[in-house]
Amino acid sequence: MFSYLRPAITLTLGFTVLTGLAYPLAMTGVAQTLFPAAANGSFIEKDGAVIGSALIGQSFTNPGYLQPRPSASNYGATPSGASNLGPTNAALIASVAERRAAYTAENGAEAPIDAVTASASGLDPDISPENARAQAARIASARKADPAAVQALIDTQIKAPLLGLYGEPTVNVLQTNLALDAAFPVAP
Fold first, then answer.
1. Phi, psi of 6 (to 5 degrees)
2. What does the pLDDT read at residue 187?
């Protein structure tokens, strides 16, 4: 019987060390070497303090800032996730209609789909260029800045799809808001 158990125990221990220790350490080393910022959470600092991550969305409600996609989890990383409401659910339809009306009233523009629907995780840090551009007039008004200059700044923040093929162009909300603060400071 021990002749059957010995190889099983040896293989279990060997694969545990290989897949539970060696492989994760090797991948951590590769990630730290090739992509150190992403491997460490893509934290964004301002005045020496971490104010967020380029990978996790957060709420901005001030009219002088670019506003993110809605979040079903109120931008909480621990309870992240979608509302799980189906496309014909009355509560979802009412919520989208309410968000669409609020967006149009705030921005004076038709709401793009990403402005009224939450992402699957509820933590999407990016919005579409159309959504960002539609908010430019409101931001310029709140910051007492030239709308064309705010629009131009937003256009500089557009990230192209990976390799020009994968995904859609996006605008990172936190990074754009930091750029807006630098270019058009809000008077205290």
1. -55, -50
2. 64
Tokens 């093929």 correspond to what residue? 165
What is the rounded average pLDDT of the residues 49-77? Answer: 88
Contact, 142 vs 62, CB < 8 A? yes
In this structure, what token pair is assigned to residue 101? 């009306």
pLDDT category at 119 given cuts 50, 70, 90 is confident
Backbone angles phi, psi at 53, to 5 degrees: -130, 145
Question: What is the reported pLDDT for 17?
Answer: 96
- The torsion region of residue 66 among left (phi > 0), alpha (psi -120 to 50) and beta comes to beta
Phi-psi group of 46: left, alpha or beta (phi > 0 → left; psi -120 to 50 → alpha; rest → beta): beta
Q: What is the dihedral of CA 31, 32, 38, 41, to 10 degrees?
A: 120
Token pair of 145 as six digits: 């800045």
pLDDT in tens, 26-35: 999 999 999 9
Taking the whole predicted model, whether its pTM rises above 0.70 is answered as yes
With vertex at residue 55, the alpha carbon angle to CA 147 and CA 89, rounded to the nearest 5 degrees, is 85
Residue in 185, 175, 76 with CA at minimum distance from that of residue 139: 185
